[in-house]
Amino acid sequence: MSVEALRAALPEYAKDLRLNLGSVTSQSHLTEQQLWGTVLTAALASRGRAAIAELEPEARAHLSAQAYRAAKTAAALMAMNNIYYRSLHLLEDAEYDRMRAGLRMNAIANPGVEKVDFELWSLAASAVNGCGRCLQAHEHELRGREVSREVIQDAIRIASVVHAVAVTLESEELIPATV
């Protein structure tokens, strides 16, 4: 199971996704751990069964046990945080921002991997989940740690392509291509 299997499974109308999936997983400014942690986190955030099934074993092969766990932790925490903080943003009531969230997020302080890696994975999940407030917070943290815009952009590109592949394959299960 692999990136290549996913690429082969994409329908002809999604040729651009096939090409993009190949390029974002082979041409990146990210370290190997950052790349595969981003791939795994984005696949989990996308909730696409086919994408997770194909990408998880490949990501696991490239990640230490700690990094694998941290990528899954980033996806899990961002599934919660992205809903919470996106909701606060959409409510447009500053009083909510002054209230204690009351949500446990201990793993953010001690993720078990380099803070930059965990922040990149959290950024990717936040991109998939569409939380502008979280995207800004993670980008700010990364830039404060002198991470280049190119690295940040690569993480977002990976998230966008993995998500698009997941959505496309899920929709193909429901409505197979006829043309």
UniProtKB/TrEMBL annotation:
<dbReference type="GO" id="GO:0032843">
    <property type="term" value="F:hydroperoxide reductase activity"/>
</dbReference>
<keyword id="KW-0560">Oxidoreductase</keyword>
<dbReference type="InterPro" id="IPR029032">
    <property type="entry name" value="AhpD-like"/>
</dbReference>
<dbReference type="InterPro" id="IPR004675">
    <property type="entry name" value="AhpD_core"/>
</dbReference>
<keyword id="KW-1015">Disulfide bond</keyword>
<dbReference type="GO" id="GO:0045454">
    <property type="term" value="P:cell redox homeostasis"/>
</dbReference>
<dbReference type="GO" id="GO:0006979">
    <property type="term" value="P:response to oxidative stress"/>
</dbReference>
<feature type="active site" description="Proton donor">
    <location>
        <position position="131"/>
    </location>
</feature>
<dbReference type="Pfam" id="PF02627">
    <property type="entry name" value="CMD"/>
</dbReference>
<feature type="domain" description="Carboxymuconolactone decarboxylase-like">
    <location>
        <begin position="95"/>
        <end position="168"/>
    </location>
</feature>
<dbReference type="InterPro" id="IPR004674">
    <property type="entry name" value="AhpD"/>
</dbReference>
<keyword id="KW-0676">Redox-active center</keyword>
<keyword id="KW-0049">Antioxidant</keyword>
<feature type="disulfide bond">
    <location>
        <begin position="131"/>
        <end position="134"/>
    </location>
</feature>
<comment type="similarity">
    <text>Belongs to the AhpD family.</text>
</comment>
<feature type="active site" description="Cysteine sulfenic acid (-SOH) intermediate">
    <location>
        <position position="134"/>
    </location>
</feature>
<comment type="function">
    <text>Antioxidant protein with alkyl hydroperoxidase activity. Required for the reduction of the AhpC active site cysteine residues and for the regeneration of the AhpC enzyme activity.</text>
</comment>
<dbReference type="InterPro" id="IPR003779">
    <property type="entry name" value="CMD-like"/>
</dbReference>
<dbReference type="GO" id="GO:0015036">
    <property type="term" value="F:disulfide oxidoreductase activity"/>
</dbReference>
<comment type="subunit">
    <text>Homotrimer.</text>
</comment>
<keyword id="KW-0575">Peroxidase</keyword>
<protein>
    <recommendedName>
        <fullName>Alkyl hydroperoxide reductase AhpD</fullName>
        <ecNumber>1.11.1.28</ecNumber>
    </recommendedName>
</protein>
<dbReference type="GO" id="GO:0051920">
    <property type="term" value="F:peroxiredoxin activity"/>
</dbReference>
